Each structure stands twice: as C-alpha cells, then as structure tokens.
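Sample entry (115 residues):
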Amino acid sequence: MHEVTIEEFEELVSQGIDSLPDDMLEALDNVIFLVEEAPTDGSEVLGVYEGFSLQERGDYGYGEEPDRIILFREPLLAHCADRDELVREIRVTLVHEIAHFYGLDENRIHELGWG
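Predicted structure, serialized as tokens:
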C-alpha cells in the first residue's frame, strides 16, 4: 500500500469514528482515541483497548485516567492493499476495540463478525 502520512491516517481514524452509529458511541465515557506507529511489544495487532470495560466499572470513578483505544498505523498499512481497504479496516478495528469497552471478549466479537 502507498504511504499514508500520520496526519492523513489520523484524519481517516477521525472519519472512521464519525461514521459509527451514535448509539455505539454514546456510552463511551472517559475514553480517548489515539494513533501510534506500532505496538511497543513488536506484535502486529491493529488496535488495542486499554482500560476498564463497562462490566468492570463498579469502582470506577472521578479522577480515573481515561481508557484508551489505540490504532496502530504501521500494522494497518501493512495489512491493507489500498486506501479503500484501509478505510474499511480502520472502521472494523474501531468497532472491535469499542466492543472490548462494552465487555465483549474476542470469541464473542468474532461471532458477531466484528473482528
């Protein structure tokens, strides 16, 4: 795939977030979306959710650091053949990581066709 600058990639992620249904986003509380070049552990994951799912938020309260949904630019670019595929994969990755926020595990996410 041709090179996509970090600025272009961040814009595609922003457009991906904007394309998601409101009801998917409305319960997101104290969650930020970030773009990083690649996972620090050297893996090839496309994205990650770091934080407490809704099911784990019983003692979650004021002053907590925001949860993070991170999309990794380099693995996503390597995974996609063209820009259209990249746009689709960014959206799929966003949905996948948001599903973790809602407490869905990998098996359930795959059963639903979200990852």
